[in-house]
Amino acid sequence: MITPRWLYVLAAATPVEFGDPLLCDETLEQLDLETVAAGDVVGIGIHTGNALRGYELGRKARERGAWVVFGGIHATLYPDEARQLGAAHAVVSGDGDVAWARVLADCKAAVPLAHYQGGRIAGGEFLEARWDLLPPGRYMWGSVQTVRGCPKHCSFCSVWRTDGQQPRARAVASVVSEVVQLRRRGYRFIALADDNFYPVSLTDLRLAERQGNTARLQELRAIRAERFELMRCLALLPRDLVFFTQITMESAEDPEFLDAMRAAGIRGALVGVEAVTPEGLKDVYKEFNATGEALVERLRSFREHGLHVLGSFIFGLPSDRPATFAATLELAQRAEVTFAQFVMLTPFPGTVDFKRWEETTARAAPPVAGIPIARHWLIPQALRPKVYVPHPVMGAEEIRERTQAVWDRFYSMKAVWRRSRCVPGWRGRLAFLFISKLYRQMYANTGIATDSARVSRSARWAALLARPCRRLFTAAPMPELQVPDNY
Ligand code: SF4
After folding, report:
1. Which helix (H) or strand (E) holds 41?
2. Atom of ligand 1 minimally distant from the CA of 160
3. CA-based angle 377:378:382, to the nearest 5?
4. What are the pLDDT digits (tens) for 7-36?
């Protein structure tokens, strides 16, 4: 669906002397190993879900005489694993934007280091992606990053640990230039792939003010001013552009910010609601969110400012009870969120939840195919169990069934049709229906189903629905489009 941004950023990080890299996104098609020759450098980016496949490719590429380099979130967390199982000559941890050129030079000189610390580079060093290398007609949405890092510390999230808690904003001109590149190619829907589009809340500012911390206050005000400047510049671009981002709920208390988002063409945002009770929020270290009626009001205020909400909810928190499922569904409907996702609490590597789970549940569980559960991503796909944080009163199957039922009810034809009133005209409503069904198909069954037959059936349906949906997202290319000169 969305352009894999990192591939095109690393293409930009490749010095001209090496030529244009061959890019392969395995969500579209598998790498043809015949294209790998001795002396090539094969960079493989992995996350936990595709690490095993990445290691297989690494070994095969090395057998063909290539230099093998791993990067990405998973390799950052487990660099030794990539060396041992993926036959990596080198692993880059952290940001690759700057480190990649050094890796290539060292491989060329046949002296790659085992480990490169890419670290957390400053926002001004983020590179513009090479969108000129995009294959035509393969993706629905473009992706541009405007800020990396998130100041929060939610227990289920690894972003603040890998990308850091200090927001690193990109130069506005560089963001605008990328958006122009994408629009020239016919992309009008663009995901602002930020960890948190709203890195400074009004509460942060009030706190710094109350503490008399002038330096901090100035820093926060500068970040906030930069966000407004970015949105002012996005507003100068063609009006048919539609942006979508991720944001914390605190932004709902900041009408000035929401209005600027709308004016910039940002039409919606994923909002991490997670839980509808104070106990649930405490479970995930997200007490800055609201609950009850205040939560409904905040979610509605996005809509009042012209922004659609994709609400993200987690089930299986220690304080959840059977009644939580219906209460969450009822709240999501009452708060008029346009889309919603309901996920089961899963211990992802790099998170606080994972560490706790690894030291307790995983340690006590028997291995599968000789592999400890704490390294479940190394278990062959056909045998790999889904792992969940154990719950004090409900079993995983009960949580899974109840979660599935919430998806089914939220995305029932009747409910989707009722929600489709949020877009004008019959065509718009039909498009809304298609997109809702596609979203549910992609994330409900494939995301939480445990049996592989159901997952592949669901993936086939998602692929079928995706074809007509893709046409809804593209627009006529604007090859002549220039970066506005009046900003
Ligand atoms: S879940 Fe969102 S708000 Fe929480 S740490 Fe991750 S990115 Fe930040």
Report:
1. strand 41-45
2. 5
3. 80
4. 999 999 999 999 999 999 999 999 999 999
